[in-house]
Design a protein that fits this description.
With 238 residues, the chain is mostly helical. It has one domain. Helices cover 73% and strands 0% of the residues. The longest helix has 32 residues. The protein is globular and about 75 Å long.
């Protein structure tokens, strides 16, 4: 129902924009240096070869390794420890207004000459929240009772998620502001798309690796088969 409603809203608003919005024919857009897809890729390669861009790409591709496990695995581990999926989904609701307000607040601090300062300042706090998330997973079975989990546990989870959102958006908005600032206006679309793509990759590949490593790094013990770690799927089956 949720997806159907917003899908309908999306279709209606987009259709209204298509029919009711008129293009301003008087303004002539500035011509970009690229003319076709081949030129665009040639331009991308020339941008990537610039020493400053190459260094920035390497930094941004590795900057999120430290909190990839906390971001990708915490929710799954909480479910594994007995926290109902629907309760975790409900906890995301209070985050929505926060996610709307945060970019507006943070943009004031990233509008200056050094937007990445906000990125650097938020990083240690986000790393510390990774330890906080590990504590939440460890704490879950300790406070669990027959009726589920106490209200104070959910309160701590919501607070932790809220603090995490603040650090996450501080880093995200700072990177977006920096990309917009350093992109050459003449090829702004191509330049910004490249930097934003690298930024997205920097967040996605560590999460994928973290999820892939969960099984090999999990210490398991088979009930009734002492000494067997059940490290592989075959051993677990046996």
């Amino acid at each position: 129902d949720f997806l159907f409603f917003w899908g309908a809203v999306f279709l209606v608003t987009t259709t209204l924009v298509a029919f009711l919005k008129k293009e301003n024919q008087e303004l002539i857009p500035a011509k970009e240096e690229t003319k076709g897809i081949t030129d665009t890729y040639k331009l991308l390669f020339s941008i990537i070869k610039m020493p400053a861009v190459l260094t920035f790409c390497l930094l941004i591709l590795t900057s999120k390794v430290g909190f990839s496990a906390a971001d990708a695995v915490t929710g799954l581990k909480l479910v594994e420890e007995g926290v109902p999926k629907e309760h975790l989904a409900l906890l995301a609701v209070p985050m929505v207004p926060l996610q709307i307000i945060l970019p507006l607040v943070i943009s004031k601090y990233t509008a200056g000459p050094q937007p990445l300062n906000t990125f650097y300042k938020a990083m240690p706090y986000r790393l510390l929240l990774g330890l906080e998330f590990a504590f939440l997973v460890w704490w879950a079975p300790k406070v669990k009772h027959e009726g589920g989990f106490p209200v104070y546990y959910y309160a701590v989870v919501v607070l932790s998620y809220a603090l995490h959102q603040i650090t996450l958006y501080s880093m995200y908005v700072a990177i977006m502001a920096f990309n917009a600032k350093v992109s050459d206006p003449l090829i702004g679309g191509t330049y910004m798309t490249l930097l934003n793509t690298v930024s997205n990759l920097g967040g996605n590949w560590p999460s994928t690796v973290a999820l892939w490593l969960v099984d090999p790094l999990t210490v398991k013990e088979c009930a009734g088969a002492q000494g067997h770690t059940c490290a592989t799927a075959e051993a677990t089956e046996v």
